[in-house]
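Sequence in, structure out. Go.
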Amino acid sequence: QVQLVESGGGLVQAGGSLRLSCAASGSIFRINNMGWYRQAPGNERELVATIIGGGSTNYADSVKGRFTISRDNGKNTVYLQMNSLKPEDTAVYYCNVRGTNNWGRDFNSWGRGTQVVVSS
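Output:
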């Protein structure tokens, strides 16, 4: 099994910054994609940003230029630096990690989520 532990959420004023972290552990042979998704009340879960092993990134249009995703392969950790936060960024943020476990099987793991609240 692969476990994900997220941290870094909280309450911040509009224009402020937060940094989310997600550490993966367990029977990991290789991690391919790492990413962040979010879900606001009444909305579907949506992609925020992803990063693949080679470092290529992909962002939702709504966060481009404000959020930066990065990863530390040695620590199996993905980060999301969120700057210039807006009230509409308020949501539960979920970490997602995909890869191959020690038995050669693909895995697709989700974190429990961390709440981000941006006040106006």
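Check: Residues 41 and 91 are 7 Å apart (CA to CA). DSSP finds no helices and eleven strands in the chain.
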